[in-house]
Amino acid sequence: MTRKQYFIIILILGSLSTISPFSIDMYLPGFPAIAEDLNTTISKIQLSLTAYLVGISVGQLLYGPLLDRFGRKYPLYAGLAVYILASVGCAFTTSADTLIFMRFLQAVGGCAGMVAAQALVRDLFPVTETAKVFSWLILVIAVSPMVAPTVGGYMTAAFGWHSVFIALAVITLVILIGVFFALPEGKKPDPTMSLKPKPVLRNFLTVLRNPQFLVYTLVGGIAAAAPFAYISGSPDVFMNIYKVSEQEYGWIFAILSVAMIGSPQLNHLLLRRLKSEQIINIALVYQIVIGSLMVVGVYLGWYGKTSLIVVLFLFLIGQGLTAPNASALALAPFSRFAGSASALGGSFRMGIGALVSGAVSLFHNGTALPMVGVMACCTLLGITVFYSGQRAATHYQEAVLAGTVAEV
Predict the structure, then answer these.
(1) Using CA atoms, how far apart are residues 251 and 150, in angstroms rounded to an integer?
(2) Residue ranges of domains in the chain, CATH in brackets
(3) Which of 136-145, 222-231, 265-274 is least confident?
(4) Contacts for 24 with CB less than 8 Å, ≥ 6 apart
């Protein structure tokens, strides 16, 4: 693989992975305008975010078997087409309920990119390179929340919130063209992979019985859910509590997203000296310390707008260290079932994200405490699972290296 091919593949896989982050972040500054236009409340519009997260969680379970059975590209084409049509539906909706339903469909289509991108990493790169590749993908993904809310805020102010969903449809169409012309096939179709419920469930159970997958999917999923608390709570915290405008909120979101751009680059350097497991441990301990400071500081009233942005920035730095290493370790044992493993992992992450998003709304009390409290709890639970399950995962890795256990 030449350097140019490597760059193009990473760019396309990163673009596929950014479809959902763009879909989540780009319309956040438009919440007040959408609620006003559809004659409803912001809390009702927030359900469209929850619907999107539920759609991703459910949709990924569908694409896992499809990607293993039909290869990577055909299910990807179908999913992106559904996403484009649903985006147009969101743009022209006239009711909050229809928007919520269209967002669900949008997620079911768009998550094909997320699942296929992770499976293709496992297809196209050796196991020893996957953590580095995932770091590159995280870097590309991290740019989206830096750009999306800012662009979304200005588009909403200039052209109305409908323009955001038209832009998402156009962006995804461009990505679809890139996939068709420039992305390698990856794993070939496997006619022996059945799509009947019983065999599909059996494949999922095969993946779930793998201790390495289970431990690192739980660790990555729970710890990586912290940003969903931030995404769900930040519009209320900054636009309602601190009274910032849509454009200013977009810039705050962009600044905080820089935290997740630099840390994947740090991960590249750390991987030269440390194992992925060691990096996860360091990142989670770091986030527990910062998370504790966030919770105590908000509770005692230490933070104003600027100081809260600073402490959130410090916390989010750790996300770019945990996520790529956990994903690489979770998918490492799989070859034939890489699609199913990717789907299960992604479904779990988004399912936890939906619960976390709901928890922030449930504990809403007019302060930033529910947001930062849920973020800190995610990290605490993540490190608890990591310490509890690391021994079983390590024994499995040693068995694979010894040749007593084969890839699945």
Answers:
(1) 6
(2) 3-402 (1.20.1250.20)
(3) 136-145
(4) 49, 52, 53, 231
The whole-angstrom separation of Cα 228 and Cα 221 is: 11
Please tell me what DSSP assigns to residue 337: T
Q: How many CB atoms lie within 10 A of CB 244?
A: 18
* 189 DSSP 8-state letter: P
The answer to whether the beta carbons of residues 145 and 255 sit under 8 Å apart is no
111: closest CA among 345, 359, 375? 345
Q: Which amino acid is at 350?
A: M
Among 38, 42, 151, 41, smallest CA distance to 90 is for 38
pLDDT for position 34: 92
For residue 395, the tally of other CB atoms under 10 A from its CB is 12
Q: Convert the pLDDT of each residue in 210-232 to its tens digit.
A: 777 777 788 877 877 787 788 77
Q: What is the residue-wise DSSP string for 354-405? A: HHHHHHHHHT--SSSHHHHHHHHHHHHHHHHHHHHHHHHHHHHHHHHHHTSS
Task: Tokens for 199, please give them.
Answer: 């065999």
Structure tokens at 160: 């109305």
Q: What is the C-alpha to C-alpha distance for residues 233 and 274, in angstroms, rounded to an integer? A: 34
**E-assigned strand segments in 209-320:** none
Q: CA-CA distance, 340 to 346, in Å (whole number)?
A: 10
Burial (CB < 10 A; 0-12, 13-18, 19+), residue 2, is: exposed
Q: How far apart are CA 117 and CA 342, in angstroms?
A: 9
Average pLDDT for residues 378-393, to the nearest whole number? 79
CB 323 within 8 A of CB 224: yes
Question: Residue 44 burial by CB count (10 A; 0-12/13-18/19+): exposed, middle or buried?
Answer: middle
pLDDT digits (tens, 9 = 90+) for 328-343: 777 776 666 666 677 7
Residue 388 in tokens: 């509890």
* Report for 96-105, 203-212, 285-294: range of highest mean pLDDT: 96-105
Q: What is the pLDDT of residue 394?
A: 64
